[in-house]
Amino acid sequence: MGMVVLFLLGCVAQDRYDAVAAERDGLAERVATLERTALDLRSERDRARKEAADAIAASTAAVARARAVEAEATRALLGLGPEQALSAVIETRLGAITCALWPDQAPRTVRTFVGLAEGSLEWTDPRTEVRRRDPLYSGTVFHRVLPGFMIQGGDPRGDGMGGPGFTIPDEIVDGGVFDRPGLLAMANSGPNTNGSQFFVTSAPAHQIDGKHTIFGSCDTEVVEQVMAEPLERARENPRETSRPRDPVRIDRIRIVRG
Hints:
The chain is an alpha+beta fold. Helix content is 37%, strand content 22%.
């Protein structure tokens, strides 16, 4: 009797051992399968990352090539040689603000600014809806002055609500960083809404990095003089004391080649 019991117990133990061994082998195979899957996923991830990096690099190179082609075309349209400088002299009753323009960095913006300054680009007067082909900036005012930040002008209406009747897209290069005073940039009401309004900074302004097209660099002596003018509340924004009491007009913007 005892031998039978022992035999039966041995059979049960063997069956349980075999079952545990089978479960162990199954788990080992499952672990191996999961490891192979993880390796495949890592390889797929690495391939995807490389493809994405290659696509970004190709896109960046294509944008750079397109900008170089447009810059070359802009120089030709403006009558500039490959290395010839271009500047804008903004004449006011307080003196002149001289700005070096950057046609290679922001070709479309510079082309538009020069066309509006010289009167070679047609624009629509927001006060009359009449199409014109004369210098837009002559007689406009610096309608918004924020001491320690910037002066803004270039609006035919003179209240910050006007423009030339068209918009041009942003040309934001290298993050559009406002890291120093004297940067000349386009004012806008959001992405790709640039028209004729522009501003010149008087200090670094990192709070607007990446939001505006920077297309030149200006001296700031007269900018500071404009900021020193007595200010009154702006009609278009009564909460902001930003409008010179005695208007600072842009008599003209003279474009200098060379």
